[in-house]
Amino acid sequence: MSGSLPNGRFIVFEGGEGAGKSTQARRLAQALAARGIGAVLTREPGGTPGAEAIRNLLLSTEGAGWGARAEALLFAAARADHVERLIRPALARGDWVICDRFIDSSRAYQGGGNGLSDAEVMTLHAIGSEGLLPDCTILLELPAEEAAARCAVRDQGQADRIGGRDAAYHARVAAAFAGFAQADPARFARVSALGTPEEVSARIEDVLASWMPPAC
Question: What is the span of the domain harbouring residue 39?
Answer without folding.
Answer: 10-207
